[in-house]
Give the backbone structure.
Amino acid sequence: MITVIANLKGGTGKSTVTFNLAVWLSSMGREPLVVDLDPQRTLSDVAALRAEENVAAPIEVLSGAFPDVGLLEEAVEVLIDVGTADLDAFRRALAIADRVLIPVTPSQADIWSTQRFVQFLYKVTGGDAPESIAFINRADVNRAIPASDEAAAALTSLPGIRLISHRVSDRPVFRDSFSEGLAVFELEPRSKAATEFITLATALFGEKRSFGLRRPRTGRARAAAIAMQRQALADLYGNGGDEGQGGPADLADMDGQTSADAGQHWAGEPEQGAKRKKKHKGGKKQLKEHKAKHKGAGKKEKKAKAGKKAKKAKKNKKGKRR
């Protein structure tokens, strides 16, 4: 499938979204073919940084001239980042797209731009436009600010596009991870930003395996990561993330394991947890006994020091009088 990430307006986060989607697909074992047709070459730069830092699962990016269409059609997943600076490449990418993903930031200018983009898309494709999917990107973190909801309502009324409800908020971690050549879920896998993006990617591409390239080092962290992923899937698919329902949550445990496999992997965790709990309980008992034994010792010591200080001050005062 050829997915083109595009919009007429700049600054909507197209390259950031494309990069994170590419890393997510790669981590799922669905190696994407990534094409950078934006003259700014932002996507190429971050891919080069990732390669320099020797990050696992490097992202191969084609840039420069428009690639051979046959090569694109042979790939399972193709992501194309394109800007309006090269209008010819922009038109050609839209013409071969199976679908167009439109990041929209919550502003009136972006709504107008999106409306014009949909008209442009229909004109370029001769009325046979591919599926056009819009989502709110860089949404306000503060839900009390109505801009994101107002933008969503306006997009819903636009003909020719499908608005999905999954939003990606404007969080600093997206900029921080991008500057390090990492996806947001690699830099902070348990952050709200990671959860939001994983939910978006799942809605767009479905899920078969875990998103995590870095495995949690402990059974407890592993369980937390799986629980977070289950919750994201539950919110998306509405099956509550319960096992045995045949839903995606049953197949989406860490590292491509089923729930049963994951359970075997850290089956000893409850027993180890009980031992740690018993140990901590013993430690608490010792601490309690220590406090009871030395109760008031600190106050007595402070009182003794205060008395010595007062005597010394009194002695010094008498010495000055003489």
In short: The two ends are 99 Å apart (CA to CA). Confidence is low (pLDDT under 50) at residues 210-230, 239-281. The longest strand covers residues 131-139. The first helix runs from residue 14 to 27.
